[in-house]
Design goal:
By secondary structure, the protein is an alpha/beta fold. It folds into 2 domains: about 30 residues, no CATH class; about 350 residues, TIM Barrel (Alpha-Beta Barrel). Helix content is about 40%, strand content about 10%. It has 14 helices and 10 strands. Helix 4 links the parallel strand 1 and strand 2. Helix 8 runs parallel beside helix 9.
Amino acid sequence: MSTTPRTLLALVLSILLLGGCKLGDSDDQRHEPTLEAKVGQMVMVGFRGLSVTPQDPIWQDIAERNPGGVVLYDVDVPSNRTQPRNIESPAQLKALTSALQGIRPDPLLIGIDQEGGIIQRLKPRYGFPDSVSHAQLGAADDLDGTYAAARAIAENLREHGININFAPVVDINTNPDNPIIARYERSFSADPAAVTRHAQAYIRAHHDVGLLTTLKHFPGHGSSTGDTHLDVTDVTHTWQPLELEPYRDLIGEGVVDLVMTAHVFNGALDPAAPATLSPAVITGLLRDELGFDGVVISDDMQMGAIVNYYGFEAALELAIAAGVDILVLSNNGSTYDDGIAARAIDHIVRLVEEGRIRRERIDQSYRRIQALKQRLAIHR
């Protein structure tokens, strides 16, 4: 029997349809993550536990809800420090991070505040090496010394399974009486150029050993007279444009992995909202003017400056609309909630389904987060 071209085409189409494929489908289309999975990647959550098992809520969240990452702490604030948190010893921490990474095949972002000096979660009393503060490094003004100190921090983090450091702080030390920056020696200098130089060395040291870094706190927290952990902090009359210089320079060099937003209110930049919830600050200033297209991560969304005025769910919507890609839920403030990650993910999914957040906006953040994880692989 002779076979015509039309017969051959019909045969091919039948085989494709019987095989469950549609003509024109790509692998990307067939393996496109669900909306819930994409939203999950936008959540980075804190939890209680020196170890994890399949019975623990955080294990179940990672397995079923696909959060992009977790945040580790050494003390548990909601229990007035009476309960253990995540860090007890080097061996314990290494086992914890290994177990977390083993829950799903795709990499989990594991972040920590290990700036150096006063702000460090891996403390000598737990068996970890001590570290030097930004202020001490800036005062010495030895870039080789800053690189060496930062590399020691990065190697310690990598050895214990942590892949993101929420540092360096690039706030300018414009207020020596600042209760949350200067008081804790978190700024390299009052000179923006010096801050940039030391941040460059700090970032390079982390990249050289395979870690991601985070510039904070955008658009500048150095002039504040209050602490956003506790309440709103208005920098309208103290903030200066020079506080943007380290961001502009480092973004221009292409070395920035993440930028963390501040919850400060700056009426000079947005008369209506704090930076984390401000499209003018995040999309207009950081993305459009400074040219940053990487991951924007919030400071803890449960800080007083946010939840005291906006509420948890409203703040999530506003932050995403403003341009935040990863929402940090420390679960380490006044209360603890095992279900906070699921609650946040479900709420954001509802916002998309109701048309209050565009699906394309979720897709933007998802692509940036996946590119960040690829960047992590490149640094290794």
